[in-house]
Amino acid sequence: MSRSFNKSIEKARLAGTLMPGGVNSPVRAFKSVGLPPLLINRAQGSKIYDIDGNEYIDYVMSYGPMLLGHADERVAKAISDVSSSGFSFGATTEREIELAELINKNFPSIEMVRLVNSGTEAVMSAVRLARGFTGRSKIIKFEGCYHGHSDSMLVKAGSGALTTSVPSSAGIPEGLSKDTLVAVYNDLSSVKNIFSANKNLIAAVIIEPVAANMGVVLPAEGFLENLTVLARENGALVIFDEVITGFRLSLGGAQGLFKIKPDITCLGKIIGGGLPIGAFGGRKDIMEYLSPLGPVYQAGTLSGNPVCVAAGIATIKAIEEDGAVSKANEASDYLVKSLKGELKNFDDKITINSISSILTIFFKGGSVNNFNDVMKSDANLFKEFFASALNGGIFMAPSQYEAMFLSSKHTKSDIDKTVSVLAGAIKIYSRH
Ligand SMILES: *Cc1c(COP(=O)(O)O)cnc(C)c1O
Question: Is 241 a catalytic residue?
Answer without folding.
Answer: yes
